[in-house]
Amino acid sequence: MKILSVVGARPNFMKVAPIHDELTKHDRFTSRIVHTGQHYDEEMSDIFFEQLGLPRPDEYLGVGSGDHADQTAEIMKSFKTVVETEAPDLVVVVGDVNSTVACSLVATKRQIPVAHVEAGLRSGDRTMPEEVNRIVTDRIADLLFVTEQSGGDNLRQEGVSDNKIAFVGNVMIDALVRFREKAAQTPIVNDLGLEEGSYVVMTMHRPSNVDEEDQLEVVLQTIQQICEDRPLVFPMHPRTKARIEEFGLDEELSRIDGLQVLPPQGYLEFLALMDQAGAVVTDSGGIQEETTFLGVPCITLRPNTERPVTIREGTNELMDLAPDAVSRRVTERMGQRMNGQTPELWDGRTAERIVEHIDSRFHTHAVPSHEESR
Ligand code: UD1
Questions:
Q1: Mean pLDDT of 106-121
Q2: Known catalytic residue: 370?
Q3: Ligand 1 centroid to 181 CA: how many Å?
Q4: Distance between CA 80 and CA 58 in Å, rounded?
Q5: N or C: which end of the chain has fewer CB within 10 A?
């Protein structure tokens, strides 16, 4: 059985790596990797392949950046050719990026079953491009692998039949479990002159936080306030860097004492930075989950989350982008590591369950055809 797994953007690599590893343990699967090239820089892409032990992609589409319609269309056009030549039995897509929805559409239209890993998450906020990608992908996928109970609940509420849904846990945590020790050996925290538990890590790249000048100004004020009390490291996403330059905010940023702006970090370096941080301030999806697993306090600067288990059981909380309140809350939560409960099935064995599930679906019952599954 030939399985084609799609990666496109940075948050995909650590989800596909454990699945690919697991598939290659079984003779009955051939695992092939397609990289759409949505992210293409060495530091946004190549380093993840090296560090996660992913083989070079079998197919590289090189679509690059663009607006959403153009990028999605380019991926669809190139992926169509891949599907024709590779003729896979199943396409695996992960997460919620443009590559996820584009490849799901192409495969579905060619009657190739699609498995969506990290299905069912909903922020309820359709201004987020990822929310639209999630809804469309889940509507057309044949197998829906869910990371937390809310994912299954959302899908059932949307009328998806139970036999398509499998609660398997969080595959990104598989990578984290596997690489945590190796990450701890990277010297980054020391090299940056930081002390474990005493600094804050920030990431910020959502269009809603960085694409408007006023909003980005408030992000800078928040950094400034936090830095009055403690060092902050900010591995900066290319989108954020581009906006800071566009709005001429670079000088203001460079004047903040205690702030270290870094280029995007490798998987191991970033994991080490998070694991040893006193607190994390972010607007990322995956980081809310990783900090929950690590027990590190996380403040998410968004009005909503599609990952409610990180709040209910984990270390995450949502806050508005308000400099005073955020810096006060950072102070309150600094260093309060929680070694409590980990969400159900976030145990490092999700890829195993995914592959078992695919195996049993394909070998004992056929995957529901597109007709039947509607
Ligand atoms: C994408 C995902 C988002 C994910 C994020 C992680 C969608 C809709 N969004 O957003 O869910 O959280 O990736 O990083 O798919 N750029 C580079 N080098 C690169 C990649 C991008 O310089 O390797 C720059 C380009 O100028 C581009 C901008 O970053 O215009 C944004 O990249 P894009 O892939 O469009 O979206 P992200 O904001 O990265």
A1: 98
A2: no
A3: 29
A4: 15
A5: C
